[in-house]
Amino acid sequence: MSTVFNRRYLIKGVVQGVGFRPFIYRLASENNLKGWVLNDSKGVTVEVEGIKEQLNKFVKQIMQEKPSLSTINEISLLHEKFTKHGYINFSIKKSEGADTREALVSPDTNVCSDCLKELFDSSNRRYKYPFINCTNCGPRYSIIFDIPYDRPNTTMRDFQMCKECKKEYEDVLDRRFHAQPVACWSCGPKIELLNNKGEKIEVDDPIAATTEKLKQGAIVAVKGLGGYHLVVDPANDEAVVTLRKRKKRLAKPFAIMSESIKEVKHYANVRPDEEMLLISKERPIVLLKKKKKNKFSDKVAPLNNYFGVMLAYAPLHYLLLQNNFNALIYTSGNVSDEAIVYKNETALKELNKIADYFLVHNREIYTRLDDSIVRVTNLGNVSKINLIRRARSYVPIPFKFIRNLPNGLALGSELKNTICLNRQEYFFMSQHIGDLKNFSIYESFKEIVNLLKKLLQIEPQFIACDMHPNFYNTKYAYEQKELPVFPIQHHHAHMASCMFEHAIDRPTIGVIFDGVGYGADGSLWGGEFLVGDYLNFERKGYFHQFKLLGGDKAVEEPYRIAFELLYRIYSKNIYDLPVSFAQARKEQLYILAKMSDANINSPITSSVGRLFDAVSALLSVREIIEYEGQAATELEQISSGSDFFNLNYEIHKKDGGWEVNFFPILEDLIRYKKENQPISKLSLSFHLTLVEIVVEMCKKIRSETQINDVILSGGVFLNQILLKNCYLKLKENKFSVYANASIPINDGGISIGQSVIAGHRFLKSLKN
Question: Which of 39, 118, 137, 182 pairs as cysteine with 148 (C-beta 3.0–4.6 A)?
Fold first, then answer.
């Protein structure tokens, strides 16, 4: 007779709220195993009894056949006994708490095909129910306020299940077994249509009424999974223009949503790898090349070659879109530069001057979530998926580091803020929070810090922040007195974020190009060539520094930067140059000249991002911006063809490092502009000259340090021409090249870089 073993396993990862316990139940039954399974604060614990062969097969099947929404990080054998307990069956036990919380919360996910089929089945009791969900789909992270992931710990606690829903919820063989948001028309959340005074509009079908309003050109604020969206028909030019005026968002592209890939292909070019992203369970916004002929208003994404497109991911989206619209504008429900609105009362207060109507529901959103943004970058024979904004459907899945580090909290950058908490080797980067330039987003920042600390039960031993002393989050770090604070240089954090992602544990060359970041010398860096590891770095090279006339005002008005650079070269002869602002803004330029001469409000920077802005203004592409990155984006998108000029530049030794003098580039551009050379060709020439600078600088640094690994990071590398050509040219020169992909290459990835640097420094401090 075969020996019966009693084994207990702990399974860690995303294993709660994803159908894991019924999966274990069915698997155990198939293998004739007895015992139990339960959720606890560490993950899923399973105790099973059976012969050795059955148990080994059982564990192997867990790894191979796990539910599609689950992620297994680890299966630990807690004990193995030769004496059996004597279980007579296999059961699912009630969830337990624990002193240490290690269970991972599942992200929100798109409605599954089974629920979608039921949604449009007129014989189904959930026919057209906008909150249909099951164990395989629906809200998770946005509704949970504590773990384990059980209904009382979610915003569904206020909805008592009817008999039919409860029967499904308790049936281990049902698709809705322990689906915490399970509900139906009789017991679940309800939807209402309101006018912008908050008055209910009495209609039999609020969703059908909403589609009619949208067809008539109305702007509707729609409450979704993670917050409100402002929704409008993109084919209605007047409605789109009205939305722009009311939202005070005059040029930044709007995201659009369609029901299916078939619909998307009517207005955008979709490559196979982009299609896979669109239909993935994450359903991010994907940047797609526009088709020249489409029926949308040209105000949807003005002066931009791309649409930001996502497929419907919630039942409500399908109900609004199906048989009604080819697409809908689905842009964040907020006043410009404010946090996305997620509470009904706040929406009615803050969005009533923008929206004509409100489609609301009474299921509370506990944590606000923006939509994630992704693009596919073609790097020669390789396509890379780049997360530009990491939020809904990706958060709170952690990243795993190559070693354990002390638990810490990193507060990220000012722009595109995220935070990061780590528990040993697992690093939990928050969703995109926003730009910490106003109090409402700072309040959101604090909410998310507290939520993640609570959900993950991580008590940090230190805090990491940016070096800039005036950021809200830097002040937050220093206002507390309990924990040591590690200020991390902005560009070192960019470099470390990419090293972290690629598990690089040796010194690298970091080519870090972005807008501006507070430098170790107190100036504003942004065109940096660093050498370093997770502890320290050395600034090996940089772009020649120049003045930002008016400080932040120069970012909003790139012609100021172009003027300053040309003024350094041509002095008063600048007014005779073939640049549009030289004559049109003559009076302003006289004032700027005095500011420059007297160094009034003129901080210096080495920023490549600001250099892009200057060239955009110099070439008369964009002199004043209406959203961050507009000048550089439009400069990139006018580049075309394969013919280009080799522009001049100089690299020379300075203070033990290398300085790039780019002034000859500007002189060449002015000369070619006088010759009326095509702006598209001049733009391409500028891009490719920067590529040559990167390669030459890296070769110089390699010859001095023998380091062959190159990191490309910072928001400027969102530029596809620059990223692709730097990557390929460095590869041609036998470098190993790395760029961010799963961690945003822009400031959204700063927090994880801060976290890993500070973790190493804190660990070193403990040893000293």
Answer: 39
- Among left, alpha and beta (phi > 0; psi -120 to 50; other), residue 213 is alpha
Angle (CA) 671 673 674, round 5°: 65
Is 549 in the same domain as 683? yes
| pLDDT of the residue at 101 | 59
pLDDT digits (tens, 9 = 90+) for 453-500: 998 889 999 999 999 999 999 999 999 999 999 999 999 999 999 999
Whether 261 and 314 share a structural domain: yes
Distance CA 142, CA 343 (A): 12
CA distance 66 to 82: 28
Give me the pLDDT at residue 99, please: 52
Round to whole Å and give the CA distance between 40 and 45: 7
Q: Are residues 467 and 600 in the same domain?
A: no
The runs of H, that is alpha helices, within 557-646 are 558-570, 580-584, 586-598, 608-618, 630-638
CATH of the domain at 311: 3.90.870.40
CATH number at residue 51: 3.30.70.100
Cα–Cα separations (whole angstroms), residue 736 to 501, 509, 510: 15, 10, 12
Please provide residue 603's backbone torsions phi and psi, each rounded to the nearest 5 degrees.
-65, 150
pLDDT tens-digit profile of 224-273? 999 999 999 999 999 999 999 999 999 999 999 999 999 999 999 999 99
**What whole-number distance in Å separates Cα of residue 543 and Cα of residue 689?**
13
One domain for residues 259 and 183: no
